[in-house]
Automatic annotation (TrEMBL):
Record InterPro entries: ATPase_NBD, ROK, ROK_cs, WH-like_DNA-bd_sf, WH_DNA-bd_sf
Family named by the database record: Belongs to the ROK (NagC/XylR) family.
PANTHER family per UniProt: GLUCOKINASE, ROK (REPRESSOR, ORF, KINASE) FAMILY
Gene3D superfamilies the record matches: 3.30.420.40, Winged helix-like DNA-binding domain superfamily/Winged helix DNA-binding domain
A Pfam family it matches: ROK
Protein name: ROK family transcriptional regulator
Length: 422
């Protein structure tokens, strides 16, 4: 194992650089044996052996089974020790909380969720989150938490982890979300917009680190996560992708943010509920109206299901939502030129009925060159998506961004991530 002076925080020697590279190569599956590492890096056998031995002694790598032989002695494989720490993911939506734990390879091991109104404020919400975390960790083996990611349904200043004027989160503006988790786990915490977590999930699912993608979430509200060459684009103040509050032509609907004519006020889930209830009050008939008359609450999920089952009112609402969202997405396509648009969320769960309308408007209103290689698809609609995305965010920050700051200590700490240790 290298000396403490060599592996001290901030050291930028060839030894440190090659050691970090080897750990990440094994972690990503780019090389699984010592000979493969030598071929990829150009390092000599003795140097590779030394670096691998250091990584094993520090707890990052472990010898595995013997690999296939190419004529001589079969090489022993190496594996990244993904089980040595956990990533805790807390995905907060407008009307729900999802909590998950993942290994360091991003595999979601367990999760829990419940309905919750984010408008109840940060104190009550985080009390509920911590109770759910206790329940989840209590039913799993005790493994140290190496990182926490928190997704919230609004713009976030990524550097500080504080929400910035979130339209549907009263009381959250400027709130220090990280502090409660840091105090509990003494681990680094990253806070991001909830749709960015979904974009990270798509990147991991597709296995493409250079993906150009827009993830559009149409739930209670509307937002977009933007991937440019595999990197999330957050903008100067965390507002990138907040398409729910762009202006819809000729609309005079009042939005929850206080402005008039926002996309969300026309096409978001809460707007569809508003319009469905108004139509039912005016005498609309069908399955959705019958359910409402029977006392079942109208919500975005129920509207989507009713549309899939042929309810005329629900179909009209879903198609109108998809049409104006497609128009806004076309602007993003012309400016951003993605290779994929992924549509998710409760409203978009109406499936092809929703997707077909979005596709039509995007292709009608976008430049031919911008749509030449464009694919528009529904999301996997898996409840674990935000947990996978949160784990992917943490993995990127831990191993691609901050690894040189903390690897000498064997695990990340708040101080090492922030660069406040000597």
């Amino acid at each position: 194992m290298a000396s403490e002076s060599t592996l001290r925080f901030g050291a930028q020697t060839d030894e440190v650089t090659s050691l970090l590279r080897i750990v990440n190569m094994v972690r990503r599956g780019e090389a699984s044996t010592r000979p493969e590492i030598g071929r990829v890096t150009g390092l000599g056998r003795g140097v590779v052996t030394q670096r691998v031995d250091q990584a094993i002694a520090m707890g990052y790598l472990q010898d595995g089974e013997f690999g296939p032989s190419s004529g001589g002695r079969a090489p022993r494989t190496l594996r990244f020790r993904a089980e040595q720490g956990r990533i805790l993911v807390c995905a907060l939506g407008a009307l729900h909380i999802h909590i998950g734990i993942a290994a360091l390879d991003g595999d979601v091991e367990d999760h829990i969720d419940q309905e919750w109104d984010i408008a109840r404020g940060p104190a009550e919400t985080l009390d509920t989150v911590m109770a759910m975390v206790d329940e989840l960790l209590g039913r799993n083996a005790e493994v140290p938490v190496w990182a926490v990611t928190v997704g919230v349904p609004g713009p976030v200043d990524f550097d500080s982890g504080r929400p910035v004027a979130p339209p549907i989160m009263p009381g959250w503006n400027g709130f220090d979300v990280r502090r409660r988790f840091e105090q509990r786990f003494d681990a680094p915490v990253w806070v991001d917009n909830d749709v960015n977590l979904l974009a990270f999930s798509e990147r991991a699912r597709r296995g493409d680190d250079r993906l150009d993608l827009i993830y559009v979430k149409v739930g209670t509200g509307i937002g977009a996560g933007l991937l440019s060459q595999g990197h999330v684009h957050r903008g100067a103040n965390g507002a990138a992708g907040d398409i729910g509050h762009v202006r819809v032509r000729d609309s005079e609907e009042q939005c929850r943010c206080g402005k008039i004519g926002c996309l969300e006020a026309v096409a978001g889930g809460w707007a569809l509920v508003r319009d469905a209830e108004a139509a039912i009050a005016d005498g609309a008939t069908g399955a959705l109206a019958r359910a409402a008359d029977a006392g079942e609450p109208v919500n975005p999920e129920r509207i989507s299901i009713a549309a899939e089952n042929g309810d005329a009112l629900a179909i009209s609402l879903i198609q109108r939502s998809a049409r104006v969202i497609g128009e806004s997405a076309a602007t993003l396509v012309n400016v951003f030129n993605p290779s994929f648009i992924v549509i998710g969320g409760a409203v978009a769960s109406a499936g092809e009925l929703f997707l077909a309308e979005v596709r039509q408007r995007v292709y009608e209103l976008s430049l031919p060159l911008a749509t030449r290689d464009l694919t528009i698809v529904n999301s996997a609609n898996d409840v674990r998506e935000p947990m996978r995305g949160g784990a992917e965010l943490a993995r990127e920050q831990l191993f691609d961004v901050t690894f040189p700051r903390w690897f000498a200590g064997g695990r990340p700490t708040i101080e090492s991530i922030r660069g406040t240790v000597g």
